[in-house]
Amino acid sequence: MNEFTALANRLADEAGEIIRTYFRAGFDVESKADHSPVTIADRAVEERLRAIIERERPEDGIYGEEFGIKDSQSGLTWVLDPIDGTKSFVIGRPTFGTLIALCEEDVPVLGVIDQAVLGERWIGVKGEQTTFNDQPVKTRSCQSLGQACAASTTPAMFEGLKAAGGAPVYEQFETAFKMMAWGGDCYMYGLLASGFMDIAVEANLSPYDFAALVPVVEGAGGHMRDWEGQPLTLASDGKTAAVGDGTLLDEILGILS
Known about the structure:
Elements: H1 2-22, E1 29-31, E2 37-39, H2 40-56, E3 61-64, E4 68-70, E5 76-84, H3 86-90, E6 97-104, E7 107-115, E8 120-125, E9 131-132, E10 135-136, E11 149-152, H4 169-176, E12 179-182, H5 187-193, E13 199-202, H6 207-210, H7 213-219, E14 223-226, E15 240-243, H8 249-256
Parallel strand pairs: 3-5, 11-12, 11-13
Antiparallel strand pairs: 1-2, 3-4, 5-6, 6-7, 7-8, 8-9, 9-10, 13-15, 14-15
Helix pairs in contact: 1-2, 5-7
């Protein structure tokens, strides 16, 4: 995987150069068809990364948030989210990140979470230890939900979803965990991999939102699954649960079942 990891690092470097140019600078914000925001930086980053991949790995597929899907001829697909957390980027909050994943068929085998403004980068490779700025990291031990620090992007993504006991899912989170923090985008998965929090639960994600997170979390000793407990692939439905300590997985899935 060394060749692919080197390319992923180069892609993250290129993305960071563009992002730092626009961060906390004046730029227009548009709304896409789903009402989510997009900026010139999102599009410029993805255009740059796609151009590099198409030049150096022309048979590989590309699955990007802004410019869609190029089918793979090699069985490998690069999955790109140029700025995960565009709202945070727009307001100048550095919890956004660039997500770069490589999937073999539809299974994530390499992932990068890059926070270009803070100079922080997590890299996960299947079968290897996750690193943070080239140093190995691992998740922390947490034996019960009541002792867990958890996070998610927004309660709105769980609207209408009921927990096993019948209460709204987001309300169940507030009572089941020691601490529930809202907001954080992809950055919270890096924090989970580094042992600063224990659980991240999301819904309504797209593959470019979660593919890079899987190798990072699992390479640090954690687990990341869909709400049925199945491994995540490009075909998954976007309901995800990540835990740093595997003993929590059945408990959190029990709430979500």
